[in-house]
Amino acid sequence: MWLFLQGAIFSKTGTIDDRTVILSPPKPIQRGWYRCDLKFHTDIISYLYKTYNQYGVILLNGQDTVFYTMDGDTSDTYTLSTVGKFSTKLQPKHDQGGQSQNRIARLREESITEYLKKINERALKYYLTEQYELNIKGLILVGTGLKKDQLRLHLDDRLNKVLLGIITRDSVQCSDILPLCTTKTPGVFELFESYVSNNPDMLCFGERDTIDRLKEARLRYVVHNIVDAAELARLAAECDSVGCTLVYSPPISKYGILCGILWYIDGYVDEDST
User: Fold this and answer.
1) Which member of 3, 147, 199, 267 has the greatest number of CB atoms within 10 A?
2) Residue-wise burial string across 214-224, b where 16 or more C-beta atoms lie within 10 A, e elsewhere
3) 186-274, which class in CATH?
4) Long-range residue pairs from 159-163, CB within 8 A, at least 24 positions apart, any chain
5) Domain boundaries defined on the chain
6) pTM score, two decimals?
7) What CATH code would you report for 54-177?
């Protein structure tokens, strides 16, 4: 869609100069608008040319959710700001058996689903402008349980398109977030691909090789595209036990559903880790 700014300029000598300016904005136009006036009303289209350099971070910790924005590109210059938070009371687990066990389990699943939908609604509130444009360059989900992984199934398409990764942590750590979202430090998948070309010995491919290296505590990152909740729970527990960062990255599927980046190989230390 195009923007047309058309008008007549009257000179001091009385001549008329008709001018037409045609613009192709970088973002989709949300509505049509026609106005005759003595000036061009560019204020109503300024949002089409506005850029945002901040990132969104959502921390899911039990029944509490915190929404952040992060600016900056190094650990010395970044600022992490809380833009919202809320809590909910989920249906507790029922492990005693009996006739009510299935009913309570179903109620718990329903309450979790509603909780995740509310998180999505809040995320749209915090990360969309009044013109329904994203005000973040990327989104990162952080948490210890499975809810962070389930949340992406309930996220609005606009948020899913800028989802950079899912990190297993109980708090927002700069060292985890910055590699995913800064331009100066490559993202984890970009780092993986750089090793594919330059130093493949720093990588492991496939579930068997990755799990073996993980048990040896030699992995810096485990990169995955796993959707099974139970499998994710087991993997998250193994990563947490050895201090490895678990990162969700759909593009990794071109190399396998589960891959890893090592801290080191024999006789070689990764410069990015020092």
Assistant:
1) 147
2) beeebbbbbbb
3) alpha beta
4) 159/56, 159/120, 159/123, 159/124, 159/127, 159/134, 162/134, 162/136, 162/137, 162/138, 163/138, 163/139, 163/248
5) 3-49, 54-177, 186-274
6) 0.53
7) 3.30.420.60
Q: How far apart are CA 162 and CA 168, in angstroms?
A: 19
Most confident segment among 10-14, 38-42, 147-151, 183-187? 147-151
d(Cα 240, Cα 250) in Å, to the nearest integer? 21
Most confident region among 4-18, 161-175, 250-264 by mean pLDDT: 250-264
Six-digit token string for 51: 């850029």
Please state, as a whole number, how many other Cβ atoms lie within 10 Å of the Cβ of residue 91: 15
Q: Return d(Cα 124, Cα 178) in angstroms, integer.
A: 23
Q: Rounded to whole angstroms, how far apart are CA atoms 35 and 3?
A: 13
Instruction: From 226, 217, 95, select the one nearest 148 (Cα to Cα).
Output: 226
CB 47 within 8 A of CB 129: yes
Average pLDDT over residues 183-201: 76
Q: Give the tokens for residue 32.
A: 């049509």
Domain 54-177 and domain 186-274, same fold? Reply is no
| Residue 134 vs residues 26, 51, 86, 127, 228: alpha-carbon distances, Å | 13, 10, 21, 6, 29
- The mean pLDDT of 79-93, rounded to a whole number, is 82
What backbone torsions phi and psi does residue 224 show, to the nearest 5 degrees? -140, 165
